[in-house]
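User: structure tokens for this one?
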Amino acid sequence: MENTFEHHIDGRPDFALLTVKIPSGKTLKVEASAMATMDTNLKMKTKMKGGFGRLFTGESIFINDFTAENGDAEIKIAPAAPGDLIHYPMNGSETLYLQSSAFVASAPSVIVNSKWQGFKGFFSGAGLFLAQCTGQGDLWFNSFGGVIEIDVKDSYVVDTGNIVAFTGNLSYSVTRFGGYKSLFFSGEGLVCRFQGEGKVWIQTRKIGPLTSWAFPFRPEGKN
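Assistant:
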């Protein structure tokens, strides 16, 4: 089919690695710095989604276009976070939202844009923006830890740090979980309240608690 690629995923669910075969003359969009290995006939071009005016707010996404020249080529893609990889075929009539670091790769026909979350997104630990994906073709996204797919029928609540992706037919709002003491002292803070019917993908781990756990083990400078 058009805009689909032969691929396979190794190392699941802890250290997933994506391998994609790119037909001659075709292009694959890949998260910047995620290329692990590639054939020598692949040519790379870097693009930025969001523009330079948004660069310093973190609301830009750098994407590399890999084009196979003079024959088919293979590329292996290793996301930054240790965890799983999900393949999702976009059907051309839907929207998928990804957390800011979840995009891994896609067909060129999948349009990836940044969507402002608002000031509350600053406290979520998930960055200031969501990646908005539309169009038709293959899309891959990753998680920190394993991924669980949840069918939402009416309403559902997810900690903002556990959200990986959700379908655009869900409405959502970010609210406090408990009072201000909960926000700053309990380890619980902001949650996303989904409404409607659609899908949410959550990750089994959060980066914030990991960094807090690792903090006491950090190397200390000697006087």
